[in-house]
Structure formats: structure tokens, C-alpha cells
Design goal:
This protein is an alpha+beta fold. The chain has 6 helices and 8 strands, in the order ββαααβββαβαββα. The protein has a single domain, classed as 3-Layer(aba) Sandwich (Aminopeptidase), CATH 3.40.630.
């Protein structure tokens, strides 16, 4: 996908606020299948991802997703420790395009924290902001979308703190979701607040 190709990974960023290195790298089947299969079977992940499948079934799913050209599948790391999974995708090639008036450069984001030891520590904010900054480097992207499960109040709060605003509730094939959007200028304000310690 031409627009998505403007972004490349891995990226590594030193976050001065949490004093840790944040890295995003591509998922590979050989390196990450066991890890991702384990994460998808975590109690805090199952209700919102519905991918707690047998190994063979999840292997088929992951290979299918890795073959899709409109998205990047990424592992987020803290100081070299894999602890989160992210999907950055072009809305124009995704199902969500049917649920609002999308623009050509719109991107979307999905995520989960897989390692329990990293839950509730606030790491999700520098991770999300770092990835969003990278996504906004695509020249035509002026807006990033998200559609967390409407039951996932914590995730909706995280998105809103990072600059997302609620658009509407949508009934997707696998969930009822809150459709959220973040404009680039709003993100820049949040990013500046983060690096200035005012977040």
C-alpha cells in the first residue's frame, strides 16, 4: 500500500519522562507466534479480541493478517522487552471505511498490552503517542481512527487522553464499538504536553 509504505520500522525512541527506550518492530511469524498466541489467551485480552483460538487456528489467522498489505503488525517493546501488540492500518482498505465518511489518508490503530506486569503502569501513553507520531508522518494522514469495544471503558479513556474524540457508536460484525478520531493538530498538542511533562 503506497501510503503505508511511507512508514518503516523498527523505530526506537528514548522517552525522557518514563526514562525507558520504546521500540516498535514488525511482527514475524517465526519470532512472535508463540508470544502472540499466549497474549490472546490472557484473561484481560480475551473479551475484547476474541482470538483465544487453538494454535493451528490462530496460526492461520496470523499468517492471513501478515499477508495483508494495508496494515503493519507491530510488537511494542519497553527497554527491549516485548510487551504489547499493535496494528496500524489504512482505513481505505479496511472494513471500518463503511461506517463513516473516511478520507484517503485516514489510518486506524488497534492495540493490546500482552504482559500483565506492564498493565496499569502508564506505559500505554508513551507507547501510543510514539506510534501515533510515526503514523502521522505519512504525508496524507491527518486523522487516526480507533474503534475499541464499547465495554472497554479503560481503553476508551486512554484514547481520549491521547487526543481522540468520540464520533459515534457503531455495530461491527464482532462487537459494538465506540468510533473515535484524533486530528493531527490535536495530537501535536498532546505530544507537546507529554514531552514537556504537562500530560
Amino acid at each position: 500500500m503506497k501510503l503505508l509504505a511511507e512508514n518503516h520500522y523498527p523505530i526506537s525512541v528514548w522517552d525522557a519522562k518514563i526514562k525507558k527506550e520504546i521500540t516498535f518492530r514488525y511482527v514475524t511469524f517465526e519470532k512472535d507466534f508463540d508470544r502472540l498466541h499466549g497474549w490472546m489467551n490472557q484473561e484481560h485480552v480475551i473479551p475484547f479480541w476474541n482470538l483465544d483460538k487453538p494454535r493451528a487456528e490462530y496460526a492461520s489467522h496470523l499468517k492471513h493478517f501478515l499477508a495483508k498489505k494495508h496494515q503493519h503488525l507491530l510488537i511494542g517493546e519497553i527497554d527491549g522487552q516485548p510487551m504489547s501488540y499493535w496494528e496500524a492500518y489504512m482505513v481505505s482498505e479496511d472494513l471500518i471505511r463503511h461506517y463513516y465518511d473516511y478520507e484517503k489518508g485516514d489510518q486506524g490503530i488497534h492495540l493490546l498490552i500482552g504482559e500483565k506486569d506492564y498493565l496499569g503502569k502508564g506505559f500505554i501513553y508513551p507507547l501510543m503517542l510514539t506510534l501515533m507520531k510515526r503514523m502521522f508522518e505519512v504525508s496524507e494522514t491527518k486523522r487516526i481512527m480507533a474503534e475499541p469495544d464499547i465495554r472497554n471503558k479503560k481503553m476508551i479513556h486512554v484514547f481520549e487522553k491521547c487526543g481522540f474524540q468520540q464520533l459515534k457508536t457503531v455495530d461491527l460484525p464482532d462487537k459494538t464499538a465506540m468510533l473515535l478520531y484524533c486530528q493531527q493538530d490535536v495530537f501535536e498538542s498532546r505530544w507537546n504536553a507529554w514531552i514537556q511533562g504537562k500530560f
